[in-house]
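Troubleshooting log. The previous structure file for this entry was overwritten by mistake, so regenerating from the original sequence record. Sequence copied from the archived sheet and checked twice against the printout by T.R.
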Amino acid sequence: MSNPAPVASPVANPRRRRSRMAGPGSTLLAEGEPMVWLTGGALVIALTMIVGLLTLVFWLGSTTFVVGPLVQLELLDGTKQLGEVSRSEQVPLTSELIFREPPVVHRQIMIQLLAENAQATWQALPAEIEAQAKTLRQDAVEVGARLTAEQNRLKSLAAARPPVPESPAARAQWIRNNTQAEALLAASQQVETLTARQEALLRQAATADAVAQDLQKKPDAVPLTALTSLDEDAQTVVVDALLVIRARQLREPHLSARRRLLRTGNFDVTQTHFAWVADYQLKPQGESQPEWAMLVERFEDGHFFGFPEALVVRHLRPIGADEKQLDDQIAMLARHAETLKAGPRKETFAKALDVLRAERSKLQREQVALFLSQFSKEPDSRELVQVTTSGRTIPFRQSDLKATPDDDPVVEARETFTGPAEAWKHFEIHHADVLSRRQQCQAMEQEAAGRSHQAVENARLRCKQAEIRQADGQRHQPLKNSAAPLKLPVFDLAQRLTARQREVAEAGKQVAAADAMVARLRKLYGAESPPAQAAQLVAADLRASEARLRAQPEVAALQQQLTEEPEDARQAVQEYLQAEQSAQAETAAVAQRMVPLKAENDRYVLRMKTAQKAVRPLRLDQIVRAIPSNRLTAGQKASIYFGRWWEFLSAAPRNGNSEGGVFPAIFGTVVMTLLMSLAVVPFGVLAALYLREYAKAGPIVSIIRISINNLAGVPSIVFGVFGLGFFCYVVGAYIDGGPRKAQFATLPLGTWLTLTTLAAVMCVVAFTISLFGLAARRAEATRRQRVSRILAGVLWVAATLLVVYLVATTPLFNGLYRAHAPNPKFGTGGLLWASLTLALLTLPVVIVATEEALSAVPNSMREGSYGCGASRWQTIRRVVLPQALPGIMTGMILAMARGAGEVAPLMLVGAVHSAPVLPVDTTAPFVHAERSFMHLGYHIYYLGFQSQNSQAAMPMVFTTTLLLIAIVATLNITAMWLRARLRRRFQQGQF
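Regenerated output below.
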């Protein structure tokens, strides 16, 4: 065999080529410079995006409460708008936009365009219109070409189509079933559209030609007269040409106009929150900042913009005890007199009323004279008027008092401080006191309502529990005779008795009042006088009415049923009656204490005038603050700015959450995040410890790790659905009403006890078998020991499943809150279920971070601990966990950051846009984890997309976003500080 020809080695050249490429400083690729620039550039881009986002949120959020100037805009149509400029933008100025406005705006724009360069514009106008007509004709030619193509296509389709039925119904069915007919119909519509478009272009071109020729024939005519005499189509052509000429003069592609979004408020007057105003809509010099323009922030109905016209102080005439007593007696006699027919009794009542009314008129005249004598004769900066019962006003002159009829006496005097300066001066004097009284009323009302509601609710629940016990006892008793009268449930019985008790108590009060009236009238006029006789008749009628109420068969039947009830039911009903009575008495007492405070607040009214000259009276107790924005100094603006921030952080929301504060949302967010952290960190750390320190590599552990990693990418709304279905509808329903409420079929008691015994036996057997599987080392275990361990594991799993099944089907548990039905307590969304749902959401983050931290602990430290004689658990507790604690804290920080910003799951499991009470209060058990709560993330979503006016709420969206970022950053910084301390504490020396 001949030797093969020698082949040149191909290795030499590549080796030399590689050596040249790898030479120092020969190429950028060899030095790695491109990757440095690439990675560094990516880092810069990421940091720029983050810093830009945070800067935008900070700027928009921090400027929400800045006090801006109030602008008044006077439009060409004569209307005025007053408000704050929310934002401005530039819009292209076109004839279509201009001709949407009234004719006065068209005229003003043409005047302005012509006046900017009148001679040059007038000379260039015909030529520009001719150029415009030429462009329109070219467009018409292009449309005609497309039209011809579509017509040819239509003819080909029409030639290829089958015959069309003549019947309309058959034709419609043929069109639906024939795709060629659909194509033919579309082509026909396209031909019609193109035809209309071509005709419109040609018509516009003809109009432009006519306008250009007409303007060329009148070179000396007044431009405005020539333009306004044209029809609308011709004016549109001229305006287009003027806009093009002006844009060329300014060397811009097109003309644009500024328009501003003005927050006008006054929704209760105008039914609008905002108004867009363009500069071309304004009159010349139509923009101003009036000195006394004022922004009024109200507790209800939002902002009000206007001018303070006057402050009215009402001085109510005090009603003495004698006059009030007479009023009540006259009212009582008049009510009874209306029910009588003509006769002696009717005449007696008429005489009695005449006597009492005469006495009241005499007393009122004295009181009115004494009341009016308090005011000065010649008021200086104020205007005084008298107001009668019917609302009639009389100018106040003490030297010339006008007599008023006895049936229309003076009830108040109104002191009016007219003028913006006087109104503002007295507003500042009285407003703080008015707000203080309002807060006192709210505090008393909330405290009394909370106590009384809780007491009544507890009594109601005891009645419901008594009903449930009776129903459970009757379930195991034989059926009674169907002819027996049906009894009311315990709570219905308590309600009926409460209603009857209230009626009897009210009747007793009326009888007592009538007896007091009889005694007084006898003393004043004698026992035989018409007033005394009429009062005796009224007292007799009321006493008879009270007796009839007490003797009602229904009352007797209810009392009889109450005596037949068991002891616990009777006690529950009595407690409910006492709670209702105490609640009514407390409510009446609080209302009585609030009467003078509210009456004092009702005296002060600020009269405001809008930019449209509408006058609106505003009570001072409905005003949060009034701000004369254009008169404030820098210090006053700063004070209002920080005051708004304090209100935002400490107050409750108002006006559909678009104003006021977000303290309930802050509280809910922080509490929910802390509860979530308390739930997720222990379970996450324990799971990671088992996977890292105890579990052996195998398919099951691999599947668990893959599942944990995949759970981190599951959409958050899926966790929300799971939380709603499992925690609310299963666990919560089970807690409320037992297995039946959770839709689980309960087992018979005998079967359940048998299975419970079986579960106990399985646990004992599994424990016994596991003892035989013990070995000093796993590697030294015998076959019998390995089988014992497997069998014990199977038994433990089976016993666990059986225990879960027994808990779900137990007949011995009927729920803890069945008395709350039909309103679930734990069977609906709440703070607890929201925290647990987000704990499941963030669990993969904590497990992965903890595993990484445990893996970072050197094995040499474990081996050293084992060498010193420590067990595995001692090594984990004293060596591994302290070293891994900073990494565990990192996982907790990531979990808190993600959980605090989630919104989608919370929409399903407890977050609401408005929560009347906090989940923590002073009522036992103090922490109410079942309550719904407010969350800053959901608050942002509701404001931006679900509120009545998202445009008005947009500034609050950015401010709430800034607050949420600040809260998350605060929680994270606290955790990072704790992590740094732990790292310094457990840091080991380096060898």
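The two ends are 68 Å apart (CA to CA). Archived copy saved in two places this time.
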